[in-house]
Every structure is written in C-alpha cells, then in structure tokens.
Amino acid sequence: MRRDTTVTAAVTVAAAIVLLLTAGGGAAITVLRILAGLPLILILPGYALGPLMLPAGSGRPTHIGPLLWRAMWVPGLSLAVTVLGGLVLNLTSVGLTRVSWTTLLTAVTLAALAASTCLPARRSAKGTRGPRTPSGGGSWPTGPLVGYAAAALAISGAAVGLAVASAGWEHSPGFAQLWLVPAASGEAGLGVRSAYSGAETFHLVLRGDTNALLSWDFTLGSGQTWRRTISAPVGQHLTARLTITGESAAETVAING
Predict the structure, then answer these.
(1) CATH number for region 176-256
(2) Across-strand partners of 177?
(3) What's the predicted TM-score (pTM) here?
(4) Rg over CA atoms, the chain
(5) What are the boundaries of each domain within the chain?
(6) Half-sphere exposure of residue 231: CA atoms within 13 angstroms, side-chain side
(7) 225 pLDDT above the threshold of 90
(8) Which DSSP helix (H) or strand (E) runs through 218?
(9) Phi and psi at residue 72, in whole multiples of 5°?
(10) What DSSP state is assigned to residue 195?
C-alpha cells in the first residue's frame, strides 16, 4: 500500500473513532466533532475516489498542474458522496444519524483506498504505449469530458428524483400542541391543537396543587383545535396533562395563578 494511501486510511479511521466515541454536549466535545467531521465530509472520500475516477492526467488541461487539478475535484467528489449517501440513508430504517453518517463515509473512503492500490500496476501495464498528447496543445480531450458530463447528469437526475420522491413521505406520526396560559385576572386559557394526520382521541386532566380539578375527553381531526377558559385563582399552581387514548406518552404544562 502506498504511503499516502496508508496515511489517508489512518486519518479516516481516526476521524471515525472520534465521531463514534464523542457524545454529549460541551464546547470542547463540539469542537472535536467538527474537527473530525469536516475532513470526513469534505476531503477524505474525494481524495480516495480521485485515483479511481480521475486517472493520471485524464482530461486535465496542460496549464493546470496535477496537484491543483486533484484539489479541484476532491471537494466535489466528497460532497457528491455525502449528498448521495444522505439520500440512500434516508431510504433505510437506520436513518440519518451520527453513527450512520460516520459508517457510510468511512466505508466509502476505505473501499476506494483499497481499490486504488491496484492502479499503479494497471498503469505500468499500459505504460509501453507511451504518453498520449492531446491535439491542439492545451485543448481538452472530448472523450473524458463527455463521460464526466454523462456521469454528472446521471447523478444529478438520480439525486433530484430521490429528493422529490422522499419529500412527500411522512417521516413522523404527528404531534399535538398543548398550552395553558394566564388570561384575564383569575382566569387562564387552556387549549389543544392536533397536528396528527388523522382523527385522535385525547384525554386532558387539569390538576391543582394536589388534586385533579377537571378532565375532558375529546376527538380532534388534523388541524382542529380545542379551547377552554378556566378559573385560575391567584397563588394556585395548575398543571395540565394531555395523553392520547391508548398511549402512555404525555405532554404536560403548568402555570402559577
């Protein structure tokens, strides 16, 4: 394995380990995740894919050096992998998480590095043919340009198609909004708005400092709202607890009258 390939593999593995092991908040942890994540998103996949997709000198104008030519392609290839990888992950049950992103980008980078180790032997086998000089001095060969354009159109079309198809998918079951806010003196406004896709039956309990004061059962369709004005004596602590019939998850709000 070439030295630059070994270094790239080591950096990729190190970045993946940092991203997988760092969890929680804190400024130091956030900075560490950013420092490890940016190369894995912007540099490493494109650097590994470069030798596979851009054989030495192919399509490169003579006035652009090979280092600059590769530096121009690395961020683009990396972002292409990230975008397409995100669309693929969005189609799976795993979803878009820190672990899934890290695993995907690391796997693509290491696989490309492993495949690129075969390039030197392949190039040396073709070396007896001699260098090919493009006609017209610094003009671009038309073959590679047509291939790149076709690949770009295919990737763009697939990305747009997946984005349009997934945009209309329902990714969450919906939610309900509960509020309990002071109104006029000695009163409070209590309300529920349903953002579920279908009709849901709710159970709402209003409690005072120690005991349940009132309770309601009602059904709301998507976008419908339920409201009540309740008594809120000065100095009394009120708590509203909302649940969906048949479920244990609850939403709770409270005020001091």
Answers:
(1) 2.60.40.10
(2) 193
(3) 0.48
(4) 29
(5) 3-122+145-167, 176-256
(6) 4
(7) yes
(8) strand 212-220
(9) -70, -35
(10) -
